[in-house]
Write a structure and sequence with these properties.
This protein is 23% helix and 31% strand. It contains 17 helices and 51 strands. α6 packs antiparallel against α7 and α15 (752-763) runs antiparallel to α16. The protein starts with a strand and ends with a strand.
């Protein structure tokens, strides 16, 4: 398997793309996985606030955080990885203005709302609103903290070279040839470069990892541009091996020496001579003899007479030069590793500048909260926080005051001048700071507005930098700040939530996990490889009808699907003769449900080679049906034929091998060593079917059940004796012997799979059941947020109380979809089988027209649409010119069930004349 690339860290401009209908801006997404936001944003991995990205190559980030507190008593240290009494409170749609609430005396007795507003690419205005709702006077204080943060694998060493010597990192190859094909050839974890390993002890923080040296014949080739003064010299190879091990690399091209590598457990350098006949591009290859693992960090090209390459310590230069001007109420910081300056100014007269020389403030700052006279606090000297300490902020009973600060960056003279503009900027902002335009909400949805505001702010501010993928550092929406990495499955739901906030951001979020034609990776995978991005795109299309999005994403999503369906590159998901798909070789989790009982047992029994879950076939069928609608729109007949073939194969496999009529569920399927299906997977303790739960009902979501199966599975999902609980749908049937009321997924209620079931109920023409799911989920979520201000991962099936990470956005994002679908006029919601070809609302949102295409691979059946309209009218609905009935549970919401048909249709909604 050959992988070819040219390595260079991408420098990504901080621009906003306009990706609405007919935007033509998708070319901006093609070369990046980044979110194209402002360089200022809530990107910190340490303390909540605002961060600035000075450049994208190093991964270094400047952070500015506000620590409000009760003076000399109780500081708020808003660590993003701890429950620290701060809460995402509000955000606009593009993260240029957002607020965190810092609770000082619960609940809202004394608090500070800190609002960060991006003025331009160089300037941020910070408003610190201090509120005392108690009957007693309160003294508050405000600490403005500035600091640098480095990426996790920031190198501890660098290579010092002399003269015209060249350092080449091993990852910067022209091609990498693996002698044996591997399952990961077209799906490298996290979208890394093939062979790449990352750790702080490597030069540049990266190397070719141990796997390269193990197999005989693995070969890596480099292109090196030599000048006339570099034609002769030595190549110094940097590597590390376990003590006592040995290996040989055979070189080719620029030199043909054999490198005899010996392991000491430490990094070693070995030299070989080279001699080029002429200047220009030269090839140099290394081929492994095989056997022992080698960490190949890279090599130096050292022309004759130049000194040897030397490994030296690389220090983090986090301590700034500080220029303070207390009379002018400002301070200027200069960090050695950043080209520009940073400045902070404030408008309160009681500010002093301090310094905390420590690597954390969670304990250290609290430990010194009573020390208000020292200016330099010397801790372990492994970090540095420049601190503006404003105190006291005196508040009478039931009084509030706002302190303002300005943060800016640029050249020294610009920063110095800009700091003097604080009052001018503040006054201009206050004069023009009208209340934000709030989308109209139906009266029945008003009670959910607060919880929707909080989940929106949480989803948007859960964005981090740097996260590494595909040879670059990116900004990335995470499920929560606790999750410092990519998450394929969760991020699909983040995109689904972003569809309700900003289709531009939703498209960028989908883009993070897709790859263009010719890329080594079929998609970007971290964790469960469930292609939720396809579902997010389907909703994106049904909202925008963007033909540019269609043309851009279809080949990417098709490639993603093809890998999961076993039809692309190194995929082995279709290795079983039964045509039951499995993804165990790529991740332990088939459907995002970590402790789902049969999944746990499969791994305990080491049975991943012979047991297949139901979800893989089911979601592959559904995705094939959705992509078929896309291919139909693009007139790609050969693709349609491929999807038809897959749909039939995967459906037949489920019906032939998986359905268990006794249990009333589709079962995990057991196979022999040759891949032939042999039976159903049983619970080893009770002997009952081990798939009594949502995985066992997943073919219902794929639309391939018989009427009898459909009836049984709907009863299982909505019966209080089975999956329906006081808090919604539980992942495991409560009557199953392996049901656990205190499990993680087993025994709890989560939002994501309920979203899939909700959509499926619309496809089945059951809007009553769809609304039951959404109503319960919105109520459970609202009750928790109203009480705790927390947006939890999951909820107790019995009590409805939240649990897990407390500022979770990812898998809880469907609550945004449900709120829009039922309470936001101008929202149209379909299941997975209605493709909205085009649509229009009139300005008053009292008239609607659409042309619809319907899934042709499912037997014609009734399907439902939700249309949220102006509540001031009653409505008449026509389909192809004929009046059809629509249910209206309350003014403004129409639940429209289409007659059973797979033919294209024209839908019209106008105010009724009655």
């Amino acid at each position: 398997m050959r992988i070819s690339l040219v390595v260079g860290i991408l420098l990504i401009p901080a621009i906003l793309i306009a990706q609405k209908k007919k935007s033509g801006k998708f070319d901006r997404l093609n070369d990046t996985h980044d979110m194209l936001l402002s360089p200022w944003g809530p990107y910190s991995k340490r303390y909540a606030g605002i961060s600035h990205i000075p450049e994208f190559k190093s991964g270094i980030r400047f952070d500015f955080s506000v620590f409000p507190g009760l003076y000399r008593y109780k500081p708020s240290v808003p660590h993003v990885l701890l429950q620290s009494d701060y809460f995402p409170w509000e955000s606009n749609n593009d993260l240029t203005k957002y607020t965190f609430r810092h609770e000082l005396l619960w609940k809202d007795e004394a608090y500070s709302d800190v609002t960060y507003r991006v003025i331009d690419s160089a300037t941020v205005l910070v408003a610190i609103r201090c509120v005392n709702n108690t009957a007693l006077p309160q003294y508050m204080d405000v600490n403005l903290m500035s600091y640098l943060d480095y990426p996790e694998n920031y190198p501890v060493n660098t290579m010092r070279l002399s003269g015209s010597s060249i350092w080449k990192n091993a990852v910067g190859y022209q091609s990498l040839d693996f002698a044996k094909k591997g399952l990961r050839d077209n799906l490298v974890q996290d979208g890394w470069i093939a062979g790449e390993a990352r750790a702080a002890e490597y030069i540049d923080g990266r190397a070719i990892g141990p796997i390269f040296g193990i197999t005989k014949g693995n070969k890596v080739t480099y292109s090196i541009a030599l000048k006339k003064d570099q034609l002769k010299g030595r190549i110094s190879v940097l590597y590390r091996m376990k003590s006592g091990s040995s290996q040989t690399f055979y070189t080719g091209g620029l030199t043909t020496e054999a490198l005899r590598l010996k392991g000491t457990g430490k990094f070693e350098q070995i030299n070989i001579p080279y001699h080029a006949a002429k200047a220009g591009a030269q090839l140099l290859s290394f081929e492994a003899e095989g056997g022992s693992a080698v960490e190949f960090n890279g090599f130096s090209i050292i022309p004759e007479k130049e000194a040897s390459a030397e490994i030296i310590a690389l220090e983090k230069k986090f301590k700034p030069a500080i220029t303070e001007n207390i009379d002018a109420k400002n301070v200027i910081l200069k960090y050695q590793e950043i080209a520009g300056y940073y400045g902070i100014s404030w408008d309160d007269a009681h500010g002093i500048v301090r310094e905390f020389r420590n690597d954390e403030l969670d304990y250290y700052f609290k430990r010194h909260v009573n020390n208000h006279t020292t200016k330099t606090f010397i801790g372990n000297d492994k970090g540095n926080f420049a601190n503006v300490y404003i105190r006291p902020v005196e508040l009478d009973a039931h009084e509030e005051k706002t302190v303002y600060a300005l943060v800016c960056t640029g050249k020294y003279e610009y920063v110095k001048k800009r700091l003097g503009n604080l009052n001018e900027i503040k006054n201009k902002v206050l004069q023009g700071d009208e209340k934000p335009v709030v989308a109209e909400v139906l009266p029945e949805g008003k009670k959910y507005e607060f919880s929707q505001k909080i989940i929106k702010a949480t989803l948007l501010t859960n964005i981090m930098y740097p996260v590494y993928t595909a040879n670059s550092y990116i900004r990335h929406f995470t499920p929560g700040k606790w999750y410092n990495s990519l998450y394929t499955w969760d991020s699909g739901f983040i995109a689904i939530g972003l569809n309700e906030i900003s289709t531009e951001l939703a498209a960028e979020c989908i883009n993070v996990y897709t790859t263009p034609e010719g890329n080594q990776n079929a998609f970007i995978q971290h964790g469960t490889p469930y292609p939720v991005q396809v579902y997010a795109f389907f909703d994106l299309w049904n909202k925008t009808q963007s033909k540019e999005a269609l043309a851009y994403f279809y080949p990417r999503l098709k490639k993603y699907y093809a890998f999961m369906a076993g039809r692309y590159g190194s995929s082995n998901t279709r290795r079983l003769k039964s045509n039951m798909l499995t993804s165990w070789d790529y991740f332990y989790n088939s459907g995002g449900w970590d402790d789902y009982p049969p999944q746990v047992t499969v791994h305990e029994q080491k049975a991943t080679k012979t047991v297949a879950a139901v979800a893989n076939n089911s979601y592959s069928i559904r995705i094939a049906k959705m992509l078929r609608l896309v291919a139909q729109a693009l007139k790609k007949e050969s693709d349609i034929a491929e999807y038809d073939k897959d749909i039939k194969l995967f459906s037949d496999a489920l019906q032939k091998y998986s359905w268990n009529d006794t249990a009333g569920y589709f079962s995990y399927v057991v196979h022999d060593e040759q891949g032939n299906a042999t039976g159903h997977f049983k619970d080893p303790l009770s002997g009952k079917d081990h798939n009594m739960g949502l995985d066992g009902a997943y073919p219902l979501l794929a639309g391939i059940c018989t009427p009898e199966q459909e009836e049984k599975l709907i009863e299982k999902i909505f019966s209080p004796q089975h999956m329906w609980t006081p808090s919604g749908i539980c992942v495991v049937d409560q009557s199953a012997p392996y049901f656990k009321p205190v499990g993680y997924w087993n025994g709890s209620v989560w939002m994501p799979h309920q979203w899939f079931v909700w959509k499926a109920m619309l496809d089945l023409g059951r809007p009553d059941l769809a609304r039951r799911i959404a109503q319960k989920a919105l109520d459970i979520f609202k009750n928790e947020v109203d009480n705790s201000y927390a947006t939890f991962e999951y909820f107790s099936a019995k009590t409805g109380r939240g649990a897990g990470w407390h500022q979770f956005g990812g898998l809880s994002a469907p609550v945004l979809s449900w709120f829009s679908a039922y309470f936001k006029p101008g929202t149209v919601t379909a299941g997975f089988e209605i493709w909205i070809k085009d649509q229009t609302f009139n300005p008053a949102q009292s008239e609607y027209k659409a042309n619809l295409s319907l899934d042709q691979t499912t037997l014609a059946r009734q399907r439902s649409l939700l249309v949220c309209m102006n509540p001031a009218f009653q409505y008449q609905v026509t389909l192809n010119g004929k009046i059809i009935k629509a249910e209206s549970p309350y003014p403004g919401l129409l639940q429209i069930t289409l007659p059973a048909s797979n033919k294209d249709a024209a839908l019209s909604i106008i105010p009724s004349k009655e």
